[in-house]
Design a protein that fits this description.
The chain is mostly helical. The protein has two domains: about 300 residues, Fido-like domain (Fic-like fold, Orthogonal Bundle); about 70 residues, Arc Repressor Mutant, subunit A, CATH 1.10.10.10. Helices cover about 55% and strands about 5% of the residues. The strands form two sheets. The protein has a three-stranded antiparallel beta sheet with strand order 3-5-4.
Length: about 400
């Protein structure tokens, strides 16, 4: 990263920094350079010009998300069905960071059946972090970010649940610091910058400076850029930043359900995603970034609508299959769990339904006869049963 990369009026300052880099013999060397420190949000924008040029994409993003939000609200078993969308988001977000795992393996990781350091376990932790954020009563803030990071990251080297305190750089690690594509702010600046980011995300709190707000999804695009640019953690920034896009509209009352997802579309366009973020820093291309961001959430909302409709139909079909004359609620409890987690053992089924192991075994076997569950044959003790139809519906046609 060189000063010549930045055009006049770029939205930040370049500060001297030091990066500790390993040499070919394993020795540590101190490299001097520059780090980018973004100006606080919001940037100085021609509001009328921006909104005029982006009206169509902003309207499309909002319309599609509101439609998806309403669709989910009308579906039976919507709480369980939303889990399918969260799994898709967690998997796609992890794929952007080159971590790949199937829905089936991610479900097994949730049972503790796979190694904690495995790719499926990483994706499962990503899902857990999103779910923690949804359950938490905290607004979008630094404390929530740290709590989610503690769930997402297990490697002590990356300080789970803490902001980074060292300089990092982004680029090809083999080319070193001097050839970094981008250098985020020094570690000593992170907490101050995150405090400012938090105030921007919560404009109506006493701690925030009164200001005219922009349309919601413009503000969300700005906040996402700022988070990724601050790069507050030593690992997990991308996954956390994209998770916050899902959480923020719900916490801010813009949507009822966490249906504002970004990652699946970005995963297919990730080179442009990284380039658009960088061009804001180097050239101040806010309009292009907001347009890209809103296109991403609009296109992903369309894809998630198809997924939600498919899951809703499958839920109705399975409900019809398990409905008995006695009208017991126990099979529905088991079905909701399967849409939520896609896998169950007899022990877990007994816990979910509040019945004995023997009685739970009968319910699991009934689901197996109906084709809802498939036993994992190579496991003898407390055998997992997978809901393969649900797994296929979550994965989508492109992965069949």
């Amino acid at each position: 990263m060189q000063p010549s990369d930045f055009q006049a009026g770029f939205p930040g300052v370049l500060e001297p920094t030091t990066f500790e880099e390993g040499g070919p013999g394993g020795e540590k060397a101190q490299r001097q350079g520059l780090a980018f420190v973004p100006h606080p949000l919001p940037p100085e924008l021609d509001r009328t010009r921006l909104l005029g040029r982006l009206f169509d994409v902003l309207d499309r993003a909002r319309t599609r998300l509101v439609r998806l939000d309403g669709l989910v609200d009308a579906l039976p078993g919507r709480t369980a069905l939303l889990s399918g969308l969260r799994i898709r988001e967690a998997r796609a977000s992890s794929q952007i960071e080159n971590t790949f795992a199937s829905v089936q393996d991610t479900a097994l990781a949730g049972l503790g059946a796979l190694r904690p350091e495995s790719a499926p376990a990483e994706v499962h932790r990503n899902q857990q972090a999103i779910e923690h954020g949804l359950r938490s009563k905290l607004p979008i803030c630094g404390r929530l970010v740290l709590e989610m990071h503690r769930l997402l990251i297990t490697d002590a080297r990356h300080r789970p649940g803490k902001y980074r305190d060292t300089q990092v750089c982004i680029g090809d690690e083999h080319k070193g610091f001097r050839h970094a594509r981008f250098v985020p702010p020094p570690g000593a600046r992170v907490r101050e910058l995150m405090d400012l980011w938090e105030r921007f995300c919560n404009p109506n709190t006493p701690q925030s400076t009164p200001r005219d707000t922009l349309p919601y999804f413009v503000e969300l695009a700005l906040a996402h850029y700022q988070f990724e640019t601050i790069h507050p953690m030593s690992d997990g920034n991308g996954r956390l930043g994209r998770a916050l896009v899902t959480l923020a509209p719900v916490k801010n009352g813009e949507l009822r359900h966490p249906v504002c997802n970004l990652s699946e579309w970005v995963q297919k366009n990730r080179q442009e995603y990284y380039e658009r973020l960088l061009r804001v820093s180097t050239h101040g291309e806010w309009e292009e970034w907001v347009g890209f961001f809103c296109t991403a959430i609009a296109e992903q909302a369309a894809a998630d609508t198809v997924c939600a409709e498919g899951l809703g139909k499958l839920y109705a079909d399975y409900t019809a299959k398990i409905t008995t004359r006695r009208g017991s609620i126990l099979p529905t409890r088991l079905l909701d769990h399967l849409f939520d987690r896609q896998v169950v053992t007899v022990t877990k089924a007994a816990e979910i339904m509040g019945i004995t192991y023997a009685a739970a075994q009968k319910h699991v076997q009934a689901f197996e006869k109906l084709g809802i569950l498939v036993a994992l044959k190579d496991v003898k003790y407390d055998r997992p049963y997978l809901a393969m139809g649900i797994i296929r519906a979550i994965q989508g046609r492109d992965e069949e």
